Structures are given as structure tokens and as C-alpha cells.
Amino acid sequence: MSSMFSKFLSFFLIVLFTFGCKSNKEVAETPPATLPFTWDNATIYFMMTDRFNNGDPSNDYQHTKENPPAPLRGYMGGDIKGITQKINQGYFSDLGVNAIWMTPLVEQIIGSVDEGTGNSFGFHGYWTRDWTALDPKFGTGADLKEMIDAAHGKGIRILLDVVANHTGPVTDKDSQWPSEWVKTGPRCTYQSAETTINCTLVDNLPDIKTESDKAVELPPFLIEKWKSEGRYDKEVEELNKWFAETGLQRTPVNYILKWVVDFIKDYGVDGFRVDTVKHTEDFVWVTLWKEASKAFNDWKKENPDKKLDDAPFYMVGEVYNYFAGNGRMFDYGDKKVDFFKDAFSSLINFDFKGDAKNGYEEIFTKYDNLLHGELKGKSIVNYISSHDDGGPFDLMRKQPFESGTKLLLCPGGAQIYYGDESARDLSIEEANGDAKLRSFMNWDELRAMKQKNGYTVNDVLIHWQKIGNFRNDHPAIGAGKHQMVSESPYLFTRSWTAPNGASDKVLIGLDLPKGQMTLDVSSLAKDGETVKDVYGGTTSTVQNGKVTIDSMFDIVLLEKV
After folding, report:
1. Which candidate in 56, 135, 275, 445 is catalytic?
2. Is 275 known to be catalytic?
3. Residue 464: inside a domain
4. Are the C-beta atoms of residues 400 and 450 closer than 8 Å to each other?
């Protein structure tokens, strides 16, 4: 494909998509406006806050020559305002995203550590210094409020990343948490529940004593910090109220739960993505779910003009190496735990990146059976790449179209890791370890319409946009029942009936011959009715149960007009 033709095709498809697909929201079997949102069909966009978009250069961290970061292990300037910019520009809406999850925004350690792969800073957000404050390098409370309001204005929900398992590393610039709050050993060996929970993930990463039932006082350094910031009395008053109302003991983890629940009370966030779930006792997450749900319901009552709908608070857990194929239970080796019970709405599914190597029907049937069988009433979030998974599907970005098709059309929730939709590089030569997965978002490649591996990144984005919007318009895709219609050509339906009685059904064809094709659509529409191929932008009238479609693509996304 010539560069000139590729650019023309990309421009043509952008125009076709932008102007040809907007009417989809008005022509589905049941108008999408009457189809309620369901987390079972969530399309969650996950970005590292510092690596997505720099909306406010004035808060950028300035690294020094005396203490430089290793490649991709320092701050690069992404912030909350940068996310808001892209919300307002419609980037997420154009992609069909209905939820955004960003790495933690709370205040990070000041210093840096050598992790064996070079000097590292807390750009990723998982090294907490103060759970009650936002990190100024990411933005302010006003910035967060503006972002959430902008997202809600476009029907997009916000998930905050919650870390209750550990603090940040000890450095010569950061105060230590008291021994009543944390332990510094032993190192986790993952042989049992005990050696996975009551241990540290790595050396010099103090582990919160989540198992403790003993009341503790506030850390002296935190008291001093709050006093210097003029908010000590307010924080203490709120803590007293929290413990009085909940009846919880003043244990280390219960302080932290109070601090993260405050983000619901103060900003109306819609859910939590919870980090390192298997490293903490399951009762912690039961408590968090209870208190978060109460806070969310209270916020909606107090802000009826701001709530999106009556969907419940959402919690998705990162139980590292939870494989959906094993059902509800996670096996520590000597103990099995059901993290779904009284806690999580959904878990991140570590199965999918391997399953993505299989054929479409094998993948879709597996997850249809699971979600309408053993996992019924709960859900999973599938992904092809992530910030700490060195074995993603399509590491070298040679199959970005197939990746989008399989991820976005699979039953269950979908997690787009920033740049999946634009083939951002996942193997940066100069970086080591998980830093390879954490380059800055490739906006420059999109602006330059960069070619790689025989495609342009813009063509990849358009593909993900088309399927993503179709998915967002049709909750049947993630939440509905899968049924293969024919093996050759490969056609299948997804059908869903919402709790409010609204119905949704679509017919999808994959790996089809390009050009003119006649398809049996009797499972979707009757003779005389009209169906639209959202991917190609054409409409057809059903005759004898069939339609004839002339398309330059090998995929059809059919809805009844």
C-alpha cells in the first residue's frame, strides 16, 4: 500500500466514520438511549496518568543531572488536565469508551530508589506517601473535579486505582511509617496464602499490616505534614466521625479505607480498580465494598443532578494471575478464596491474553459459557496488554486489528491499555522490565500517520473506533448471549434483555470475503426490514432472509434499523 493511498484511505475512513456512524445511536433495535448502562459491557480505557497527555507543563517534575532516572523510570509530564483535554476533544467517546481508569493520583514518595534496573521514581502512582492528598505533579482537587464532571458530561465513568497493600519505598528523602503500621519482611514466596499475604512484594516496599486488629495512632510524620498544610484539625475530625459511624477499629488498613472512600464522597467517582488484591486478607475488600457502596449511594442522593444513573458502585480487582477459566475461586495453593463474594463486581482476567491466540468462536464460546454459567451475576475484564504484564498478546504490534476485534467483541468487560488502539510500542529497546510497557502515548505517530508493520497507526485507531462504538451502542456484545449462526461464513449473534425490559440484538460477521457478499440475516431481521453494516456504513433491505453487501472489509457489524 503506497503512503499516499494509505493517507487517503485513512482520511476517507475518518470522514466516513465521523459522519456515517453518528446516526447509529438513533437506529438500533431498541434505541440505545433506552438501553441502560451495564458494567458487564464496560469498555475501560486504562492509562498511566504520567504517560498519557501533558495538559499542564507548569506542574512537570524537573529531574536533575545528579539524580537522573533510568530509561522510562522518571516523570514525563502526563497529568489530570491532560486526561480532561482528551475527554473534551471526544477522544474517548470516538473510541466507544464508557469508563476511564488511571493509575493512582495520590501523593507519591519524594525520593527515588534503585530497583536493580536503574533509578526509579513514583511516576506510576503505586508508591504512596499520603493517601489524603493528590500528587501535585498529577494535579489538584479542582483538576480532578473538572475531569470527573467532563467525563460524566459525556456519559463516561471514572475509576480510581486503590492501593491498600503497601506504602512507597523508604528513601533518604521520605519519612518511614511506624512499625505499628507496616512490616518490612519476609519477602513473599507465593507458596501459600500466608506467604502471599503477610509479606512484602519486593525488598524495601513496606507492607501495611492489614492483618492487624490493634488500634494505632496516626504516624508522626503525617501529623506534622497535615499541621504544616493547615488541615490537621479537619482530618482528625473526619477520622473521628468515620470510626464512630462505621464502628471500625482504628487499624492501619481501616484508616486507608477511610481515605480512599473520601474520593467517592468528595468527587463522586464511580468505581475502584483495586491493586494487589491477593496480597491482602479478603475481609479488607468486603469492608471496602460495603463502605464504598454506602458512600456512593449517599453521594447520588446528595447530587441527583450529577449522577449518571442508578448503576451500583463498581469494584474490579487485580488478583494477579486470576484465570477466569478456573471460575470464581482463586487458589493460593493451600487455600481457595472467592473474591467475588460480598466484594468485587469483577476481576481482571489474566486468561484472555493467552486465549487471544485461539480462533474467534473458541474464544467467544469459552467466555459465553463462563459468564452465563459459573460466573453468572459477576463479570471479568479482559485485556491484551497492561502496565506490568511482560507477556501481552501481540507484543510487537503485528496484529493490532485482530487484537481489537477479539478484545472488543469478546463477552465480558474490556480493558484498553493506552495505545492498544494506536499500536503504541510495547518493547522499548533502551528500557528494562515493565518500563518497556510504559512509553508516552504515541500522539506523535498519530499526527504523522506513521506506518509500521504494513499499516498506519491511524487505520488501527479507526478499526478500534468502529468496533468500540458499536460495542458501546450495543450492550449485548459484552453482556449478552453468544450464538454462532454459521461457521462459513462465520456469523454470530449477541442478544441481551436489560433489567428494564429493553432488548438488544446484533449480528456480526468476521473473516468474510471482501467485495460483494450475500449473508443470511434471518436471525436478526425479517423480510422488508432494513439492516445497517456499521463497519462499512451501508444499509440493506432484507429479502428472503438475506442481504447483499458490497464491502471492502472482511467484517460486518449489523444492527436492525
Report:
1. 275
2. yes
3. no
4. no
